[in-house]
Amino acid sequence: MDTLEHQAQSLPAPTADRPLLGLTVLVIEDSRFACEAMRLLCLRSGARIRRAGSLRAARRHLQVYRPSIVIADLGLPDGNGIDLIAELARAQPRVDALLAISGDTHLAADALAAGADRFMSKPLQSLSQFQQVVLAALPPHHRPPGLSALSDDTVRPDDIALQDDMAHMDDVLTGPCTPETLDYVAQFLAGVARSAQDAALEQAATALAARRAMGLPTNEEKRVIRSVLRQRLTRQIAI
């Protein structure tokens, strides 16, 4: 019996209400707010979770550990998550389930073409939706026998994680910003805003992305975003 077979036999068996029991999920996600939601979903499903906030951190992690499931965000600070998905899809042995996640649904086809088993759209806060997508990507021997007990529960990440994301983006905008940095800020904040249901922040991020796409100056859009961020951060401090 090889090591992987022994490890598989020693894992606790999944159950209907904890269908990912015994599995380890590597979440590659730069947003603390989105990662906190994923952490809650994994824990409620019985899975252990590890986090990497960049492609570099993910590759370093994968040199040491072999997770059962990888969930990779497609917009990361040091590159495109699709590149990592393509690498992991070709790797031997392959992880049991390889999933892409993004707030940009138009990237789904590219992620699946690169080798992702499934695509998940942000914001993802439904426990049953999360479990259904992950279980569909797993091989049969990792699924609980019979029907899973689907839950209508949703998760709500801690507001401290949201504040961390906003403070980080405020710091990024304080320094010199390359065009690539502005593109990253726009997509990051748009995703966070959708998850937090913050219409004003999403509008500001979308406006920045539109100006960047047209190759136009973005000084006013940066000013508006920083103003919105400062309002949110000041509100949190006051609370």
From TrEMBL:
Which Pfam families does this UniProt record tie to the protein? Response_reg
Task: Tell me the ranges covered by the Response regulatory domain, including all copies.
Answer: 24-137
Record key words, sorted: Phosphoprotein
CDD domains membership: REC
SUPFAM superfamilies referenced in this protein's UniProt entry, alphabetically: CheY-like
Lineage in the entry?
unclassified sequences, metagenomes, ecological metagenomes
Q: Gene3D superfamilies from the xrefs?
A: 3.40.50.2300
> What InterPro entries is this protein classified in?
Bact_response_regulator, CheY-like_superfamily, Sig_transdc_resp-reg_receiver
Recorded protein name is Response regulatory domain-containing protein
- Tell me the Gene Ontology biological-process terms attached to this UniProt entry: phosphorelay signal transduction system
